[in-house]
Fold this sequence. Notes:
Blueprint: E1 2-7, H1 12-22, E2 28-32, H2 44-60, E3 63-68, H3 71-76, H4 78-89, E4 94-96, H5 99-108, E5 113-118, H6 120-125, H7 127-134, E6 140-145, H8 149-154, H9 158-175, E7 178-181, H10 190-196, E8 201-203, H11 209-219, H12 221-224, E9 233-237, H13 241-252
Parallel strand pairs: 1-2, 1-3, 2-9, 3-4, 5-6, 5-7, 7-8
The chain binds D-glutamic acid (DGL).
Amino acid sequence: MKIGFYDSGLGGLTILRATREMLPYYDYVYFGDTANLPYGDKSEEEIYTLAHDAIDKLFQDGASLIIVACNTISAEVLRKLQDTVFNNLYPDRRVLGVIIPTIEKLVESDIHNALLIGTRRTVASKKYERELEKKNFTIQLSALATPRLVPLIEAHEFQAAFSALQEIAHGNISNAEAVILGCTHYTVLKDMIREVYPHVTVLSQDEIIPEKIMSYLQRHNEIEAKLTRNGTIEIILSEGSERYERIKKLFFNV
Ligand code: DGL
């Protein structure tokens, strides 16, 4: 069985790539719902339906562990889907999000003033704030929705996306001790942010999630034992094959 990854588009590929670098022997399947992107501006009901169908499809495609490499889904509907649907349908498989591991990383660090940037949905959900509260972690967290970035990043206009980020958030980033890239698409901007704001700690999920998956698998032998080890990767995008080939090459050179 495989490790499945799911994002609204291509952002989650950065998490998959980093995970595969750390854990190359497993078999992976990725689903990017490029036909329905962006999720960040959709209603909770729409995200629920799309996420339900995508996760179910990945389970049927043979995933025994699914990483929802999307903050918007992790924030809005993941818990509900786990509790009411997937724990019953697939009791011996697991689906995990990216927000709780990011919170864990933040709590492990010595950061006390952070800026969260993400989609409108992620910011409005206040999921980061709620999870931090559960951990009793005292931090001054401000959150800013930056919805202009995802379409630019999907179009591979990374420089334009960074300029848009600066227009929206230059002051906020300059004054923050840390910036949490609370959208998997934003991981491609981490180097530019680090270069221009060297005093700011950048929390980027491609640098957080792989080690959390590794540690999860070490603790959950019942899931790990089911994973096959042929080092394969399959990338499915709901949009179309020309783009699929270009992205596959860019990210995985296959
Ligand atoms: N990559 C997704 C996230 O982490 C969001 C992109 C979108 O708006 O669809 O939130």
